[in-house]
Amino acid sequence: MKTLLIFPAQWYPTQPYLSTPYLTAFLQEKGWKVSQRDFNIESYDHFLSAPLLRQAEDLLKKQQQSLKSQSSLSIKEKSHLDVLSMGLKFSDRIIEGVEEAKSVMRTPERFFDFGSYQQADMVIKSALKLVSDAHAPAILSMSTFESGTRAEESTRKAHETTRDTATNPFINLYENVLLSTENWQEYDVVGISIVGISQIIPGLTLARMIKEKYPHLHITLGGPIFSVNAGQLIGHPEFFDDFCHSVVTFEGEEPMHRLLSALKAGDSLSTVPNLLHLDDREVVHNKERVELRFEELPNPDFEGLPMDKYLSPYPILPVLQSRGCYWGKCTFCTHSFVYGHRYGKQKTQAMVDELERLMKKYNTKYFTFSDEAVSPHSLNDVSEEMIERGVEISSLALLKFEKVMDEELFGKMKKAGFTFLMFGLESANDRVLALIDKGTTKEVEHDVLMKSHNAGIWNHSFLFFGFPTETRPEAQETIDFLRDNLQSIHSFGPGVFLLNRDSSCYQYPEKFSIEKIIEDPERNIAMNLDFVAKEGMSREEAVEMNDTCIRMAEEYFQSLKIWGTLPREHFLLYIDKFGKEALNGKKPPAPEEEKVLCRA
Hints:
Layout (H helix, E strand, L loop, with lengths): L1 E6 L11 H11 L3 E6 H9 L2 H19 L6 H32 L1 H4 L2 H21 L4 E2 L4 E2 L8 H7 L7 H10 L10 E5 L6 H14 L4 E5 L1 H5 L1 H4 L3 H7 L2 E3 L4 H13 L9 E5 L2 E4 L30 E4 L2 E2 L11 H4 L5 E2 L2 H15 L3 E4 L6 H14 L4 E6 L7 H10 L1 E9 L3 H7 L5 H13 L3 E6 L8 H13 L6 E3 L5 E2 L3 H4 L6 E5 L9 E6 L5 H18 L3 H4 L4 H11 L1 H4 L17
Parallel strand pairs: 1-2, 1-5, 5-6, 6-7, 10-13, 13-14, 14-15, 15-16, 16-17
Antiparallel strand pairs: 3-4, 7-8, 8-9, 11-12, 18-20, 19-20
Helix pairs in contact: 1-13, 2-8, 3-4, 3-6, 4-6, 8-9, 15-16, 16-17, 20-22
């Protein structure tokens, strides 16, 4: 039995993702032959190349000629013609510059020249817009793939869109480029990891094409998308006809091992835990659910992933100190549901051992702690261990605001290399925080942000508007909090509340004054659902408050010109290169002004 694990587009192309490296390591330890591919970065590398961009240009020309040949055009068609004409006006310049732009992202000296970075970033975004315009209404960018028809929310629409060459650029990419790079006859099983909404159509397109072309393969899907939506696939055997033979829900290591064992022995799929599959024409979700102790899992294996193709000048590796969330109570979140309300963490010495191993193997010091939230206790212990050993890294981590976070902790973290911290602020109103069950207060948020700032750490806060029952004055309190703490708040990312399936808000709507959750059968695999609340702002009002917050940021946060451009992994490198103060409100120094060149 030989297995190929694939991470499909679309995800940020700045670093590997952890799903296939963890599965690869575990299955290999069990004795299985496993390989892995990152089709996400390979997709970007090809879309951002002259051959595929010329194909997109040809499609734009054909669409332009077709519209010009019509005797009359609707307003929508005239608008589309303008888009096509603008794209073709600059297409030669974009195509000629795209390889140079990728080189800038991969070359340290050029990457850290912010003017060069901005130019390369503009070319890459313009190139992806060419691809998008050629396949309108689809949108492909560095941060998303959207079908334009909400096909990622519907099994019926997914059936259509994964076959529609006009709006789906991945069909041509797979057919004429990526599928031919693998010898599929060597494999027995292909696992495709779909962790985000933007991966649904690219991932299902890949699954459908492999299933049709290579019928000897068992295609299995996995990832949190289908863990949350497992119940929505019941009664839809056509989904399995189209895309796969099975779906692994929740944590996948032991279920994948058991699936391979069952396939090798010819046993029934009903013996495999966490599995969705067809039994005759009925979709069955096996009752047995299995998760392993996280600390017993082998370290992720990045072997086989193309480190030279990621759009970063140094390898930036994701690591986990824990799996699950130590808090696990936030009422908008589904992470605890996906992990079965379980939490496990790596032993401190083993964590630092792994960091040292990866530093040496990949010649890097850059890491992203990708935990749902790293606990203060873990941060303290890992920092102390790194300081004692003299391990020098530069890392970001995701945290929850805690009263116990004091000056001593942040001092240790800064010394240990935690230069960039991302907090779940959500709101700065105590009533809303209590309803979210964040386990914190506005006062604690203020104190923690100030203490991290004083330690020399860049802090970033995530927040949203429109949590059920939130009022305009309460939303304004959050905006005022950001503006009134310019000294200690360095950057933030606002958004609008989304009701996630299987969150506490979804399961207990009456607690949040939600009188109606709109379950549209046509949107049967939608992750985010529309709702009607008895109290608080409407969605339109929440969007208005979000826009108000963005305008405030543009007026008061001068550093937005930098952190508003860079993805978080790139911003980590910039913080390490130039320091917090250089980025907080002014342009980074030009290369000739630097005293020391940062080396990994």
